[in-house]
Amino acid sequence: MQKYFHIKTYGCQMNVHESEKIAGILTDLGYEECAEIENADIAVFNTCCIRENAENHAFGNIGMLKKLKLQKRDMIIAVGGCLTQQMGKADGLHEKFPYVDIIFGTHNLHKLKEYILLKQSAKKPVIKIEEDSGFIPEGDKPFRTSYPNAWVNITYGCNNFCSYCIVPYVRGRERSRKSQNIISEAQSLISDGYKEITLLGQNVNSYGNGSDDLSFPELLKSVASIDGKFRLRFMTSHPKDFSEELAKTMSENPKICRCLHLPVQSGSDAVLKAMNRKYTVKEYLDKIDILKKYMPNCAVTTDLIVGFPGETEEDFLQTMELVKKVNYASAFTFVYSKREGTVASRMPNQIPEEVSKDRIMRLVELVNSLTRGHSSKYIGQTVEILCEGFDEKKQMYLGRDEYGRMGYFAGTAEDLGCFVNVKIKKANGVSLIGEKV
Ligand code: SAH
Ligand code: SF4
Ligand code: F3S
User: Fold this and answer.
1) How many A from CA of 341 to the centre of ligand 2?
2) Residue bearing the CA closest to ligand 3, atom 2
3) Ligand 2 lined by 83 (C-beta under 6 Å)
4) 382 in Cβ contact with 422 (< 8 Å)
5) Domain containing 171 — which CATH number?
6) Residue nearest to atom 5 of ligand 2 (CA)
7) Atom of ligand 2 nearest to the CA of 236
8) pLDDT (tens digit per residue) in 309-331
9) How confident is the model at residue 209, as a pLDDT?
10) Which of the ligands is closest to the CA of residue 334?
11) Residue 76 φ then ψ, to 5°
């Protein structure tokens, strides 16, 4: 009888791709994917702990499975990812949800098959959390679900220890895959028909640091030189490691998209220092100038945090100033969330919730107005969109242009995975609506 799996993914693209690796392991074991968790023989939660609400979301969903597990006793529930890797969380999770069968972390995802087989032969839950051993996974066979885009890991872990961030604690030290493995993975994806490669790492700019392998710009150049029409993206860049060589490489290689996500976090030097970001506002703006010198039209996006401990109204206004100055195409905005074990969690002057709420509202309003300004410039222009899916709500096909902007159009299933020229007629916040030409 056919057995089914269902995976719930929380958090960043890194986790999205790791869920594809989990799906690869489950497919290898003979399971097939199903859309509804109720029909699954194995349910996997791939969790995130970047902010408290990400944690609560996963906890809530795992809690809701108790009833189902009582009806379907043979169903296997597995929980992995960044949340379980956090110190002490695996035991807490087991106590709170004793019906969870397998708990694994970020450093032993590749052993999931072993854990499933172990669980099938034993009654007891399998709880396995491993420490960072510097292991670099190779040879996994992800069951990819994001065609025409394919995610490719280039680095794992992070050494930056931004004072607010939990990632270095749950993902371990930064390590880079060998460039030849990355390039051959990209080559086989392109020959399999993928039209977009996104290179993934917490801090892609420091790729290869401390080794005699390629630098990040050299790696980009090598991947971009693979034959065939495709787009090349990467995320995320840390401003301290963004170099002129990278800007130059982007400008010289048309396959590399004309967009850069460069998280700034704050526009106040005092806050940046307390965040341990290792750059000043001036240094950040100088990098934006270098980028614009090579690619005047490059779309710049960012991440921003409000309510960091000690952030004054003046600091916040400096963030607003910076956002206006850079004129971001769009931005992810977050309220600071205290993460246990981080340096910032021990800082005095945690900001009251109502102050943070007020600040985030003002910031979101500003970011939205900038985004609308960028969108309105698109009206009447024809852009090349890589069609990546169908939006059920809008009943339209969708995809992004080389600046990373999402565009919607009335198309056909044949457009999926193709580059489509779309003339933009309307702009709706971040999304553009147009017609095929
Ligand atoms: N490695 C990437 C992304 C890390 S997580 C980078 O350095 O840019 C994505 C974003 O989440 C961060 O850029 C930051 O803006 C936000 N973030 C991280 N920790 C947070 C916390 N404790 N509270 C609120 N936002 C946080
Ligand atoms: Fe977190 Fe900073 Fe590393 Fe990004 S660079 S993952 S924000 S510690
Ligand atoms: Fe990503 Fe969340 Fe982990 S943002 S690295 S899944 S803590």
Assistant:
1) 14
2) 48
3) no
4) yes
5) 3.30.750.210
6) 160
7) 4
8) 999 999 999 999 999 999 999 99
9) 84
10) 1
11) -100, 130
Helices (H), 97-178: 112-121, 167-171
Cβ–ligand 2 contact at 162 (below 6 Å): yes
* Residue 93 Cβ < 6 Å to ligand 3: no
Range of the domain at 173: 146-257
| Ligand 3 centroid to residue 15 C-alpha, Å | 7
**192 and 295 housed in the same domain:** no
pTM exceeding the 0.85 threshold for the entire prediction: yes
Which of 10, 14, 48, 50 to mutate to test ligand 1, by most ligand atoms within 8 A of the CB atom? 50
Distance CA 27, CA 14 (A): 20
With respect to residue 135, please indicate whether it lies within any of the assigned structural domains.
Answer: no
38 has pLDDT over 90: yes
What type of residue is 60? Answer: G
- CATH code of the domain containing 387: 2.40.50.140
| Any atom of ligand 3 within 6 Å of the Cβ of 200 | no
The one-character DSSP state at 205 is G
Total structural domains in the chain?
A: 4
The reply to whether ligand 2 has any atom less than 6 angstroms from the CB of 206 is no
Q: What is the mean pLDDT of residues 205-221?
A: 93
CB atoms closer than 10 angstroms to residue 403 = 17
Burial of 157 (0-12, 13-18, 19+ CB in 10 A): buried
**What does the pLDDT look like over 248-285, one tens digit per residue?**
999 999 999 999 999 999 999 999 999 999 999 999 99
